[in-house]
Amino acid sequence: MLEREIELRADALQADGVEPVAYRTLFLGGGTPSLLSPDEIGRILQALRSRFLLAADAEITMECNPGALDPGWLRGYRELGVNRLSFGVQSFHDDDLRFLSRIHTAREARSGIALAREHFENVSLDLIFALPNQTRERWRASLDEGVRLGTDHISAYALVFEEGTKLNTLRLAGSVQPVNDGLEADMYCETMETLALHGFHQYEVSNYARPGRECRHNVGYWERHTYIAFGPSAHAFLRTHSRSIRWANVSNLNAYLDALDAGRLPVASSEIVTPGLALEEIVFLGLRSGGIIIDEFRAVAGADLAQIAARRVAWLLEGRYATLDPDRLRLTRRGYPFADRFALELIADLEAALPELMASGTGPQNITLPVLKNA
Amino acid sequence: MNHIRNFCIIAHIDHGKSTLADRLLERTGRITAREMTNNQILDDNPLEQERGITIKLHAIQMEYRRPPASGGGGPFILNLIDTPGHVDFSYEVSRSLAACEGALLVVDATQGVEAQTIANLYLAIEAGLEIIPVINKIDLPSAATTLPGVKQQVIDLIGCKEEEMILASAKAGIGIDEILEAIVERIPSPRGVGDAPLRALIFDSLFDSYRGVIAYVRVLDGELREGQKIKFMHSGREFYVEECGMLHMDRVKAPSIPCGSVGYFTASIKDVKDTKVGDTVTTAKDGATEPIPGFREVKPMVFAGIYPADSDDYESLREALGKLSLNDSAILYEPETSTALGFGFRCGFLGMLHMEIVQERLEREFDQTLVTTIPNVEYLVTKTNGEKITVDNPADLPTPGVIETIEEPYIKAQIICPSEYIGAITKLCIERRGVYRNTTYISSTRVDITFEIPLAEVIFDFYDKLKSVSRGYASLDYELIGLREGDLVKIDILLNSDPVDALSMIIHRSKAYAYGRKLCTKLRELIPRQMFEIAVQAAIGAKVIARDTIKALRKDVIAKCYGGDISRKRKLLEKQKEGKKRMKQVGAVEIPQEAFLAVLSMED
Q1: Can you tell me the mean pLDDT for A106-127?
Q2: For position A54, which CATH number holds?
């Protein structure tokens, strides 16, 4: 069915006159794509390559479960062109893994990664801190082990109790106790410092890489490049010289299949990113990652960030929360912990300075775009 | 006039006043059973229906023909004048009573007499009204046991004979005919002088955007006619009567309101403040010389600052208050500014319920989002130079050095409860600086306790506390008894040394320390951490009496950005943005709105 969606989408983009471009990254993720055999992955890649142009040096990432890896399959993925693996390890401590209901053990994670390194140079790990009952020492041990295993990329996320999740229900019921926010902040600062000492460069709030090993695909999200996405719940962003549109597929698998059966694209919602919304995105995504791109900001706002929000920018620089060079306003290690707060404050400044432009973000949303729904 | 009867119903909340009124309207054919919805006719404000209380007064006229067995005759014109059932509105009650010759005293057969009922009953007796005791809800199973006791209570209270009491169930329609007969038989007809100069008592008014003020009146002498030039004796304003008539389910136009009757009139009056409750209407030429006694300027007792949550909405709030006050002459407001809250209004209310009603109406009917400051009473300050000033905003209190004395309003609180709660209630009143006066047994198990208490001590949560220590059985009525000197001080709250004017409070010295400590702790919980440490201090003058610290924020970022789902992150941000917009700023510190009412949510 994924192949069907790829066909329909390609047709729709073509019908809409979207110029074909060479895509620089491909990310096979969400769920556990490593459950699919190289043959199955091969068919998907085949379908994509037949309708979309993939750059010769494209970064092709696949998300993997570190348990139960098959060496033959790993070799197979490599031969298909997959050149980066991302492991949802989360922790090298079995208590943490049990709490997170992971099916792998710390031991399996270690051996799985060692095995992956035999076939892939570019391997990334996801780790989680601020888990209930996780001590600083335990977190440090997981982090050290991640570094020791020779990976070049680590994503270290603080646990988030998100509304509507089972975890949050447990928290509200009092059966799960979040770590206190002081400890969480300590763990975060320690993560940033430790990884810096080991030669990792922080290029986003929770992402660290050795030079050149940043995940180009994720950077694309944060720098607002076009991305097309397939599968239930997939989110896409199309940016052309004339407009920017975000859309999302239905999340329900049956609804997804029904739409495709009927020859329709399974789009659930879409929105036009007005200049006001674009500015918000530029600010909050930029502050979270490699910095607000000065030129891009100017192109949308029609004015310089350093002028519009002169006082705020000066304050950030004085407090050593950020640095400003000709290209970007970038948060420092001191500033990253407050990225959301600074984004809100900067956006408030923009709303005061550019009321009309920013208000363009409040227009009617969820506009039906025929081209996106149907070929 | 012989065929007119003007009466009201005195009852405690939930004792069945509205149901009884509906039943009378139905039995006299004013409404059909089918027209009766679940909503009771007298309470037509949604807020009233929700709270089960009547706030504004209304009146309605019925026509009653006596059955042949009672000699037939009629039709009799029965004017039922409704009264509000809360202490905040006791002056309005007294004016409604002054428009009647009789009152139905409705007592729940299972609950007995409550303080509010007694207070209003005394007002009615003072006004010389004929009282018809009605014991309601006699069909309830538990009434069998409680009825003899309740009967005895009523006999002790008004000295009536047992056979004068009517046993009824408004819900089941029992006793309704007897009540109608008693109204005609026992309540005297009005005793006005038809050819004397006009004297009409205003007992209510409301604002209609098409016709201006609609005044509800009882004509005591003379006659009120369409086209007549009239004069309000207290305000001195003169108008031409544009339209007048009777009050059925709707207003019914008539050429005049005859002597002794109740009705309405319009006269292109733009402001309800021109038709003050209790004022006397007479003719502009050859009018009466003596106004109807009992008029009083309504004086607010409780004051609070009302501010728009978003300072951009100041104009819209002003407009809303303007419109609201067209219908509510009791609310007073004037612009004030606060360093913490910006531009807003200092408002005066009759009491806490009135304040709540105003707040709710502003929010519901006028779509305002408000920040309200801690309510306070009005103080009389004598300065060392002999000058006397009234202070209705703690921020305006002069510095301690120039204050000679501060006087605060006291009330006489009458509390009726089962005798086993005497101890708990006495303890509560003494905690509130109450001075014990006396206890009277109104029956073998119920007592009437009187305390004199500073008004400031009852405006917050006294009523709730009273209910909780008495498991809901105690009822309260109070009246203002004047000003008394007190050892009062002003507590200021400072955030990183910047005073937050909207959090200042005048309080008795003996309570200042505990209050300061509690408020600092509460504020520490309510004010979110910021980029720097915040010192929260409570101070009397220059002396800091309590201190707490809000530690600096260390992290304010969501770890994950949800892959390619940027819209989700943006929506989250949008939500935070709304929250931030509603923050108020003092110095560099951002304060959420809840903090300004922190004191109301403090536990003892």
Answers
A1: 94
A2: 3.80.30.20
Interface test with A, best of B312, B531, B553, B556 (most A CBs within 10 A): B556
Quickly list DSSP for B378-433.
-EEEEETTS-EEEESSGGGPPPGGGEEEEEEEEEEEEEEEEGGGHHHHHHHHHHTT
Model pTM score: 0.74
A201 and A350 in a common domain: no
Measured distance CA(B135)–CA(B142) in Å, rounded: 14
Partner-chain contact A344 B573, CB within 8 Å? yes
3-state secondary structure of B86: coil
List, in sequence order, the alpha helices (H) in B417-482.
422-431, 455-458, 462-469
The DSSP code for B354 is H
Beta-carbon neighbour count of residue A82 at 10 Å? Answer: 24
CA distance B522 to chain A (A): 19
Number of Cβ within a 10 Å radius of residue B508: 17
Reported as a pLDDT band with limits 50, 70 and 90, residue B115 is confident
User: E-strand spans in chain A?
Assistant: 22-28, 53-64, 84-90, 122-129, 153-158, 201-204, 207-209, 235-239, 244-249, 267-272, 292-293, 322-324, 328-331
CATH of the domain at A287: 1.10.10
Closest alpha carbon to B100 in B9, B16, B196, B18: B9
| Residue pLDDT, tens place only, A167-212 | 999 999 999 999 988 999 999 999 999 999 999 999 999 999 999 9
* CB-count exposure of residue B123 (10 Å: 0-12, 13-18, 19+): buried
* Total CB pairs under 8 A between chain A and B: 87
One domain for residues A207 and A75:
yes
Cβ distance A206 to B573 less than 8 Å, yes or no, reads no
Between residues B580 and A56, the one the model is more confident about: A56
Measured between beta carbons, the chain B residues lying within 8 angstroms of A30 are: 563
Check CB contact under 8 Å for B564 and A281: no
What is the rounded average pLDDT of the residues B516-529?
93
Higher local confidence (pLDDT), B535 or B598: B535
Same domain (yes/no): A36, A172: yes
Say yes or no for a CB contact (<8 Å) between A280 and B580.
no
Handedness of CA A130, A132, A134, A136 (dihedral sign): positive
pLDDT of residue B86: 67
Q: Which domain, by its residues, includes A321? A: 275-358
- All residues of chain A having their beta carbon less than 8 Å from the beta carbon of residue B563 are 29-30, 221, 235
Please indicate whether, in this complex, the C-beta atoms of A160 and B559 are within 8 angstroms of each other. Answer: yes
Contacts of A340 in chain B (CB under 8 A): 556-558, 573, 576
Nearest to A285 among B551, B566, B577 (CB): B566
Domains held by chain A: number: 2
Per-residue model confidence as pLDDT tens digits over B468-487: 898 877 888 888 899 999 99
Interface probe, candidates B533, B549, B551, B566, chain A, greatest A C-beta count within 10 A: B566
